[in-house]
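Task: complex structure prediction.
Instruction: return structure tokens for all chains below.
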Amino acid sequence: MSPRALKALEPASTDPAFIRNFCIIAHIDHGKSTLADRMLQITGVVSDRDMRAQYLDRMDIERERGITIKSQAVRMPWELDGQTYALNMIDTPGHVDFTYEVSRSLAACEGAILLVDAAQGIEAQTLANLYLALDNDLTIIPVLNKIDLPAADPEKYIKEIVGLLGCTQEDILLVSGKTGVGVSELLDRATRLIPPPIGDPAAPARAMIFDSVYDSYRGVITYVRMIDGALKPREKIMMMSTKSAHEVLEIGVSAPEPTLTKGLGVGEVGYLITGVKDVRLSKVGDTVTSFTKPATVALKGYSEPMPMVFSGVYPIDGSDYPALREALDKLKLSDAALVYEPETSVALGFGFRCGFLGLLHLEIVTERLEREFGLDLIATAPSVIYQVTTDDKKTVTVTNPSEFPGGKIASVSEPVVKASILTPKDFVGTVMELCQGRRGTMQGMEYVGEDRVELHYTMPLGEIVFDFFDQLKSRTAGYASLDYEPTGDQDADLVKVDILLQGEAVDAFSAIVHRDKAYAYGVLMTERLKKLIPRQQFEVPIQAAIGARIIARESISAMRKDVLAKCYGGDITRKRKLLEKQKEGKKRMKMVGRVEVPQEAFIAALSGDTETKDKK
Amino acid sequence: MPGALPIADAAPSDGALPSSVVVGAAERDFGVYVHVPFCRVRCGYCDFNTYTAEELRGAKRSDYASQAIAEIDLARDVLRRAELPHRPASTLFFGGGTPTMLPATDLTAMLAAVADTWGLAQDAEITTEANPDSVDAVYLRVLADAGFTRVSFGMQSAVPHVLATLERTHDPERVPLVVQWAREAGLEVSLDLIYGTPGESLDDWRTSLEHAIAQHPDHLSAYSLIVEDGTKLARQIRRGEVARPDEDLQADMYELADEVLEAAGYGWYEVSNWSRESSADVVEHRSRHNLAYWQGQDWWGIGPGAHSHVGGVRWWNVKHPAAYADRIGAGRSPGAGRETLDDETRRVESVLLGTRIRDGLVIAQLPSSARTAIAGLIGDGLVDGASAVRGTLVLTLRGRLLADAVVRRLLP
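Output:
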């Protein structure tokens, strides 16, 4: 085992030969953050006293969910064979929604530790990220983690990794992030095997932004990996995609607390602060260069974040609308991928149409809004981007069923993804059934290890955003994992199904679905609403319709009796209080035409919870 | 168990009323309600303020009349101190509980106390409730001779299995007898019916209605069974031993009642009350005491848990007979809580209460928001269009069944 380095190398003047940049590729829950914690402790950059679990995860929500949303880099000194090195560990987000961010983190590294849970084996997302790493020519160091667990089966998963990477059994390290076993050996091996960064110190500065974080005190903190040249404090810099110029107010490295440096040189990883207040001015993947001596060619791989999934987000209490706007404005500062615009719904009032990278992103944003800003929210069923061409050759982009054009439709195009599902082989049948039911086309299937299978499908994204992941999990006892990436668009026979209450469409329940599934959706929603909407003074028909054609129908019979028999012994007070209570209840009702619908009914119908019919 | 009292202000220990109660008093009738909080057994559906012998905690039925008379004295002093004009009682109503569990002489003594204190209006309506099995011919004769004009029998149903579910103990065969005795004594007769009891069919209800009509009562009340929290019936329903009353069936039953009673010459004058009419203009069989609640008249409620209203002040007495006895014994007002209605609340109440009676609300006196709602109510068949054109808001049959919804639409 190597000793801790006694004296760390000075940033800004570190010979690239002694720098190692790497990341950790792992599935959620496979112990990446715990391993990172142990590295911080073993290298001595965080004292045992200051250690807290998942040190690098800053947001509460990350720590609670045990997942990493935003990546961060940390510089650690390490000594091997008498030479001191600087190890930069870049923590990457682990989820499919953040593939682009992952790809930029990987592009900042020369090596990757492939971390696999010794009790669970490789998951689909890990495979996806491993492909990305190999694609970036990263050196892979395979590691089996959690070998301390009673359920660990290292032999089985060693075979799986050997089969996957074509490496030898000896190439795979056995560690426990929890106990620290094998972590020093891992650092030694990383130092030995991962190649040093290569760049031209004399060329104009080029640094790639791999993360951009909003801090309410300091503004945006931009994490960069220097490729060529150097950046210095007080220097004027320029973002190559926007040509916007800023002054570097602070430059440094994370060790892991922010530590000022005299600059950053070739191969180094660190952060910049320029005083900008919006992460949109410092985009992941963009190239930072010197304003006075700019580079001519930007680093490749930059792309604008593309929202894939859209949902209407509404405050449950309508008076929270301004608070929601303010919260989104604040959240946007730290989330460059979040887009939103105001939207009005008959059923839900004022809210915002939000675009997300994927379902997890949606979940994280709504959860942050609720937690950090104390809002109670309801989100409509997620939708994707459709291109709808009408018979008169007009094409409309539809991210919300309400934008679906009326009249004759020539064609509808929907986004398609390549989905990889990794599942124990016993569940292959049920997974195939699920995928076929979701209009998936099988592209292939291969064994990963002895008892797990990776299934490849192309599938409409619209089918995935609608409850697919939950279904996959529940049908495979939680074992299957999913990864997907967009592959383009396809034409499909899609229709908009409206749900009508007494002839009035309830916008929140309109959905774009495949024609073959329109009836099932119509029946589901009409039955659900029949259970949820209290009786009115008149009969209320509930219909599902495609255009003018009714495809499903239910009705709520009229309430016939709504009168108190008497007021006992002249207790008028009690009767009046009851009226006041009823009037309060009426205020919480939303009007759809003449139908009074409790807000709870909309929420329950959207969430599928039909147990709570509000009695008057 | 009895239901809870409203939450409001504390009542002053001397029961004093503010001077505001004088405003308009001369135009309001004054009535007296005497609550008699005793029953032999408690029926499973009942949450009225009434107590069996075991529940009295030392209070004595035999002391009750003198306590009630003491409150009548207190009422006299309070009304006098408030400088209300002298008004003879236009109605007096003994309700319960079971007033006829007391000796007839107790009831007549209380009637005499009211008469001595305020005097009785010339045509005063003086009623007691009675169970068919708690009175006989002599008892009724004593009441009539003392000045009672009316008796209201708790018939509830003519069908044995319905009476059994309600835990009513009387024999249905006894109803014709007591009605006959009352009539012989010169008393007007009202019959109380309950519909919508679990297990009661529409035919059962028709049977009850026909039996009731066959007695030719002057007046009929038909109340739908309401399952009140805390009652034995509510527990039985919660445990699934008894079916929950079906509101649609109750609506059918109300419609049937209205049809059968109209055909037999009874007209509705309040949502749950019908009176015998020789012509549409004859109103003499309506219960004026019952109407007083809906018309916002003044009345003093005597006895445990009784509610009172005088000139925009509502109050209610302590509920338990033992607590009541303590207060009266100490010379203090038995008032437990009260509220003084502001103008807005009085407007709300006038709509809330007035909507239920056939004489209806004067549309011109309604706030403009309520007036604009009326067209929609006519359109939905809840309010009678012809009456509205003539300036009065009168509910249709459907409107009576949805009266609370109508009120909510009138009071946005």
